[in-house]
Amino acid sequence: MAAMVGNINMIATPKQPDRSESAKRDIVAGGIVVAAILLFVGTGSTVLQAVVNTLIGIGGGPDRALAAAMVLNVALILFGWRRYEDLNREIRERTEAEQRARYLADTDPLTGFLNRRSLLATGQQQIAGAIAEKRHVALFLLDLDHFKTVNDIHGHAAGDRVLQVAAERISAILPPTATKARLGGDEFVAMLAFEPSARPTIDALAAELVTALENSVTHDAQQIRIGASLGISLADDASVTMETMVRQADIAMYNCKDEGRNRFCWFEPGMEMAVQVRNQIETGIREGMPRGEFVPHFEPQVDIASGRLVGFEMLMRWESPEYGMIPPERFIPVAEESGLIGELSLQVIRQAMEIAKRWDPSILLAVNISPQQLKDPWFSQKLTKLLVEVGFPASQLEVEITESSLFENLPLVRSIVTSLKNQGVSLSLDDFGTGYSSLSHLRALPFDRIKIDRSFVAAMRGSPDAQAIVVAIVRLGESLAMPITAEGVEDEATAIELTRLGCAKGQGWYFGRAASAADTERLLAERGLLRAPLVPPTSPDTGSDTAGAEPLRKTA
Description:
The protein is of the alpha/beta class.
C-alpha cells in the first residue's frame, strides 16, 4: 500500500464541572423545596381560609404573620422548581456534549463512517459474534484508484467531494447491517457477516461496488473519473484478528492494482509471499542506488533503409551482487509504486550521458521517462540541470514519453515537453497504439517522432489487422511530418516489409540487443563513431544482452 494516512480524530474531553460543589447545591436546593412544602402544608390552609373569609365578609382579616409565611412558601417553591429546571437542562446539555464527543471520536467527519480507531475497537467483537452464530465475516478494503491525481489536478475540495460520493455509493449498495469505515485517505472498509453458503452474494456485492465507483463524479461542472480496487479477506474462525483481516485485505487490494485495477480479489496465501518479494525488491533498490548497482545498457537504433547506426535507446539494468542481472520489468514497477523512480531514473540517465559524451555527435541518446516523472512539475528543470552539469548537448538527447502518460494530466505534460523542446531536446511518443492518445494530442504536443509498439510489429507478418495498424501509423506520421520508429524488429523479413512501408528507423534483436557500456563503445569504435578511448572494463562482461547475437546486420 502506498503509505496509508489515518485520519483519527483526537477529541479533547470537555471540562466537567466540579461534581462535589454541584452535589452540595443540589442538596441545598432540595432541602429548601422540602422545607417550603412542609411549611406550606402547615400554614397554607389556614392563611387561605382567612383570605377567603375576608373576601366573603366572614370573620376578621388574615393573620399578617401567616400571610407572610404563605408568600414566602410560594416564593421558595418557585425558586426550587426553577432550580429543578436548571438542573435538568444542565444534565441534558452534559449528556448531549458527551454523546457528541463520543460521535466525533468514533466517526470520520467527512463521510459519517466509523474511523480506523473505532473500527479496530469494535470489529473484533463483531467477528466473535458472527463465528458464535456459525457465520463468516468478509472484510472489504476498497482503495480509490489515482485519487492523488484528483487532489493534484482538481484540488482538495474536489477530492473531498469524491470521497463523499464514494461513501454514498458504498452505503447505497451494502446492506444496512454492514459496518462501514474510512481508514484514512482514500481507503474504505466494510465488514459483512454472511452464511458460509452465501459467498456468491459477497462476490456480487464486491463487483457492484467496483462498477458503481467507475462512474465519474461531478464537481464544479467538471467530470472527475475515478475507479476502485477492492481486496477481500475472510474470517471463518474466532482466532482471526482485525489486524490480520485488514492486512490480508490490503494485500489482496494491491494484487488487484497489479492486475489492472477496477476489480476485486479475495486474499490468497500466495499473495503474501508476493508482497514479501516486492518488499525485498524495494529494499534492494534503496540499498543499491547509493552503491551504483543500477547501470545503463544501450539498444541500437538503425536507419532501416541503409542500415546506418543513428542512435541508442538507454535501458536500465540492475546488477545485483546477490541476485545477478535483474531485468527492468522486475524492479521498475516497484520503483514507481514506492516513489523511487524519479531519483533512480535521473541517476542512470546521468551515467548514460557521461558515457554518450564520448560518442560521435550524430548518434542520439534516447531515454524513457516514467509516467510518474511526468507528474513532477519540476521534471523539466531537473533534466535541464542534469544536461548542464554533465555537459551533454541537448540536441543529442531524445526523450521518449509513453502514450498512456498523456491521459492523466495533459496540461502538465504539455508544459514539461514544451519546456524540454525549448531547450533543444527531441521528443518521441513511445508505444503508440496502446494507450489513450488521439490526433489532438499529436497536434497539441511538439513531438518529433512516433514509435510503433513492438506488439504490432511482432504480429505484423501473421496478422492482417496488425499490419493494417502499422500501415495506418506510418501514413499518419507522413501526414504529420513525424518520422516513425518501429520497435521489436526481430528478423530480416520484418525489416524488409517496414522498409517497403516507409518506416524510417527500427530497433530490435535483428539489429542488436541491448548491450553494456563497454560493448557499445567497442561497437562504436569499430565504426569510427567514438570520439574518446574505450573505457576499460573492470571485469569480464557477462551481464550484456548481446551474447550470441550479431549487432547491426547491415553496415553503413
